[in-house]
Design brief:
Blueprint lengths: L2 H59 L4 H16 L6 E7 L6 E10 L18 E10 L6
Antiparallel strand pairs: 1-2, 2-3
Helix pairs in contact: 1-2
C-alpha cells in the first residue's frame, strides 16, 4: 500500500470517529452524573443514620431538656457533614425519665440532578430523593 492509499484510508475514518464520539459522549456524561447523584443519596443516607445516633446519644446523657439537646446536636451534626441535603430533625420520643427511650429521626432531601432528563428518558425519577435515619437510646441518669 502506497502513501496515497494510507491517506485515503485515514480520511475515510475521520467522519465516523467524530460521529461515534458525538453519540457516545452525552450518554457517558449522563451515566457519570447518575453515578454522582447515586453516591450523594447513599452518603446522605449514611449521614442521616450517624446524625440520628449522635443526637440520640447527646440527648440520652443530658440531664435536662433531653429532646431539645438531642434535636440540636443531630441538626448540628447533619448540617456540618452534608449541608447539600437540607436536613431536618424530628423527635419521635422525647425521653426525659431515667430508663425511658429517646428516639430521633433525621431526614435529608437530596436534590435530583437528573430531573431535567425525565422527558428524554422515561423511568428517570423527576422528584428529589428523601432519605432518613433513626436512632433510639435509653435515657441515662442517676437517682437522687
Amino acid at each position: 500500500m502506497d502513501m496515497t492509499g494510507i491517506r485515503r484510508k485515514f480520511s475515510e475514518n475521520e467522519g465516523a470517529e467524530l460521529l461515534e464520539a458525538a453519540l457516545v459522549l452525552p450518554i457517558l456524561l449522563l451515566v457519570m452524573l447518575a453515578v454522582v447523584n447515586l453516591g450523594m443519596v447513599v452518603f446522605a443516607s449514611q449521614m442521616a443514620e450517624e446524625a440520628a445516633r449522635y443526637g440520640a446519644r447527646a440527648g440520652a446523657v443530658a440531664q435536662s431538656n433531653q429532646d431539645a439537646v438531642a434535636a440540636s446536636a443531630a441538626l448540628s451534626f447533619a448540617t456540618t457533614t452534608f449541608p447539600i441535603g437540607a436536613p431536618s430533625v424530628t423527635v419521635l420520643s422525647p425521653g426525659g425519665a431515667i430508663g425511658s427511650t429517646l428516639r430521633i429521626r433525621v431526614t435529608y432531601r437530596v436534590p435530583n440532578y437528573l430531573r431535567g432528563f425525565g422527558a428524554l428518558f422515561p423511568g428517570i425519577p423527576s422528584h428529589e430523593f428523601v432519605v432518613s435515619g433513626e436512632a433510639s437510646m435509653r435515657q441515662e441518669g442517676w437517682l437522687r
